[in-house]
Amino acid sequence: MIVHWHRRDLRTTDNRGLARAAATDEPVVPLFVFDPTVLEYASPVRIACLCEALEALRMRYRELGSDLVVVEGEASGAVPRIAAEYDASRVVWNADYSGLARDRDRAVRAALEDAFVTYESVHDAVHHEPGTITPNQGDHYSVFSYFWKKWRDRDKRDPVDEPDADDLADVTGDPLPTLDDLEFDEPDATPQPVTMAAARDRVADFCSGQIYRYADEREYPAATGTSRLSPHLKWGTIGPRVLYAATERAVAETDSDGDRESVREFQRQLAWREFYVHVLAFNPEIVSDNFSGYANDIEWRDDPTALEAWKAGETGYPIVDAGMRQLREEGWMHNRVRMLVASFLTKDLLLDWRLGYDWFRQLLADHDTASDVGGWQWAASTGTDAQPYFRVFNPLKQGGEYDPDAKYVREYVAELSDVPTDAIHGWHDLESAERERLAPEYPAPIVDHAARRIQAIEMFERARGET
Ligand code: FAD
To answer: Where is the site Electron transfer via tryptophanyl radical (predicted)?
Structure first.
């Protein structure tokens, strides 16, 4: 027997590690381990997604005459134990590049060596693994545009097939644990379905039409302009090669240069994901440390009341509040609004990006350490290729530009549903009596953006040692 240990690759198709295992003469035992040292960092919404994706994976294995073996325990004990139970000579898995995952895998490798079981870690989650797209000096690019040019021009691997039923072991797994068994509450949010079938449908749907409008619509949170594939890429319910092949088909199926440009723009976003994977792989400490050093510490404020208002979507800045409420309701937020709320936390509330990252980590169904840390450090002007510290988003202008009819705000901020668009975008400048008349339940702005912008710039100049 040979064990394929699933982790963030919750699919049977376009799974390179699984295909590698299936290509041997040995029947494959599919395994998933609920590891308490990893679950420690999980959250209700993510565990709910994980269990849903695992249930779908299990059903697919059953259709193929096999099953998913599911166990609980530290991976360094559980993986060799299952290998011994099934008399497996080898364990295969797909590489995961975060620091936590690499620590876990080191311990598993050592335990397998002690048990004389061979193993293989296969590159699967990205097209071009860390260390393969590099500048002349250094392990990874720090500037995205250079990375993108190389990423774009490199050949991509083809998708790999699902194993045949004959390649899989005739095993029977125990039922999956419930959220309660795993000591997690039911999530408050209702995230989108995260299964292989949902991923396949979304790719097919997106790549047959919306992808051609992506470049024009991707920045507008009220439009269904983006793919919403991030939870699938996070959990691996879609393979990157299948997705990329679908985008290339979309290129082949159009005669319009504009359409082709739009597909390229989408592919560019896929490359951002891999850029951050490379950055994190070589800098695992950036989950808690600033990527870019400043001469002095940044003097972030300590303001628990402001933090709570931000988390609750009660800042009095409509587009920020809409985003924070979308996050709570759906476990997802539009990228433009993620940038805005992150900028607001760090540059308007002057709070440490790590506080925002922690909140996103808990609530995002698509939380991915590399992209989440990358996005936060970008917004906080501490990251790779980050927003310059003196370019501070104006949440009022951004609301008017990217949500001109305030449709997005009205969808998530019920108190503003009957308020005229101009008043929503000008909320900050209204007399308090007027605000009270229009939406008595909705707060006044908790800070003055113009004043905080100046304070933020001064805070960074002090950190740079310039004042
Ligand atoms: P689309 O626009 O359809 O893009 C397709 C795919 O490209 C995405 O699914 C994602 O895999 C990738 N992508 C797009 N934009 C980015 C980006 N800026 N950085 C990295 N990858 C990108 N993305 C996550 O997947 N997980 C996170 O935890 C996460 N946290 C973020 C935190 C902050 C503060 C910011 C500013 C961004 C974060 N992002 C994160 C990136 C981005 O917001 C999401 O990937 C995107 O909103 C997902 O929606 P979509 O699938 O419809 O994106």
So the answer is: 300, 353, 376
Distance 335 CA to ligand 1 centre (A): 6
Taking residues 171-177, what's their average pLDDT?
Answer: 93
Tens-digit pLDDT profile for residues 46-82: 999 999 999 999 999 999 999 999 999 999 999 999 9
What count of Cα atoms within 13 Å lies in the side-chain half-sphere of residue 78?
18
Question: Which residue, 270, 412, 423, is CA-closest to 337?
Answer: 412
End-to-end CA gap in the chain = 66
CA distance 242 to 232: 12
**What mean pLDDT is predicted for residues 292-314?**
95
CA–CA separation, 203 vs 126, rounded Å? 17
Q: Any idea which residue has 């404020």 for tokens? A: 301
How far does residue 230's CA lie from ligand 1's centre (Å)? 6
Confidence of residue 386 (pLDDT cuts 50, 70, 90): confident
C-alpha span between 16 and 246 (Å, rounded): 18
For residue 301, what pLDDT is reported?
98
Residue 467 has pLDDT above 80, yes or no: no
Read off the pTM.
0.97
Ligand 1 atom closest to the CA of 333, numbered from 1: 47
The Cα 96–Cα 302 span in angstroms is 35
**pLDDT one-digit tens code per residue, 192-237:** 999 999 999 999 999 999 999 999 999 999 998 999 999 999 999 9
E strand or H helix at 438 = helix 432-438
* Ligand 1 surroundings by CB, under 6 angstroms: 218, 226-230, 233-234, 269-270, 272-273, 276, 335, 338-339, 342, 360, 364, 366-368, 371-372, 374-376, 379
- Where would I find the H helices in 23-173? 36-39, 44-63, 75-85, 99-114, 144-153
Domains and CATH numbers, the chain: 2-124 (3.40.50.620), 126-156+194-282 (1.25.40.80), 304-463 (1.10.579.10)
Binding residues for FAD: 214, 226-230, 266, 269-276, 366-368
